[in-house]
Amino acid sequence: MSKFSEIINQEKPVLVDFFAEWCGPCKMMSPILKEVKDTLQDKVVILKIDVDKNQAIAAKYQVRGVPTLILYKSGKQVWRQSGMVQKNELVSIINNVG
Predict the structure, then answer these.
(1) Which is nearest to 33 in space by CA: 96, 85, 95?
(2) Active site annotation includes 70
(3) 3-class SS at 33?
């Protein structure tokens, strides 16, 4: 858990993708997140958290559905959405907090 806190407390935006292996929309988010990373490169950290393997973190952050995307900046949650999000929307949101 402390490693997670360390990661989200960075200066640069950290996009956390809470997902599950069995989740269809989660699988569709993977290539979108890769494109976001390719576009923004080192302006963002993208962290994938498997809710089945990390139930304590999912519970702490009240993740009830997957995929859930949460954007952190300096340890503070600045944006959150459950469900699929398109690349352009994500890039825009990250650029606005960056």
Answers:
(1) 85
(2) no
(3) helix
**What pLDDT sits at residue 98?**
73
Q: Are 1 and 56 in contact, with CB atoms under 8 Å apart? A: yes
Q: Residue 1: its pLDDT value, please?
A: 54
- Going by DSSP bridges, is the β-strand pair 45-50/14-19 parallel, antiparallel, or unpaired? parallel
The catalytic position among 4, 7, 23, 37 is 23
Kindly report, residue by residue over 15-61, the tens digit of the pLDDT. 999 999 999 999 999 999 999 999 999 999 999 999 999 999 999 99
Q: Would residue 17 show up in a list of annotated catalytic residues for this protein? A: no
- Phi and psi at 78, nearest 5°, equal -115, -10
Helices and strands per DSSP (H, E), number in the chain: 4, 4
Which residue in 8, 16, 20, 26 is the catalytic one?
Answer: 26
E strand or H helix that includes residue 52: none
Q: Is the pTM of this model over 0.90?
A: yes
